[in-house]
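User: Can you help me understand a structure? I only have the sequence.
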Amino acid sequence: MTQPIQLFDLASRQAEWLSVRQEVVAANIANANTPKYHAKDVTPFNAVLDKTSSFQLARTNAAHFTAGPDGVSSDVEVREAKLNNEIGVQESGNTVGLAEELTKSGDIKREYELNAALVKSFHRMMLMTVRK
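Assistant: Let's start by predicting it. Here is the structure, written out as tokens:
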């Protein structure tokens, strides 16, 4: 039996994923000059959705995230990023491509804005149906 898609739950999961991804991208940018630092990335959002089930641990407060011991969501895997063919491995052993990381940051911003706009529109639509 399939369950209906819960838009607010889906938007919340994507917002959490975007937050984790932004943290990883920011760490990559901060370590762009750190010798032997290897760029990291997170699992794609659709893979996170595939791993999550309808079973969720209870939260004592709505503001609590379901995060693992290192503060990263237990559904989002942080892994070493694929090697950027344009920069390769620098002399220092660093694999961070600053242009690529800034592009990811812009993508995250656009995805978050879309997420927020969709939730706002859906919320408005629900309020209009309740008022009538």
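Now, to help you interpret it: The helical segments are 7-30, 45-51, 98-131. The chain has a mean pLDDT of 78. Let me know which part you'd like to focus on.
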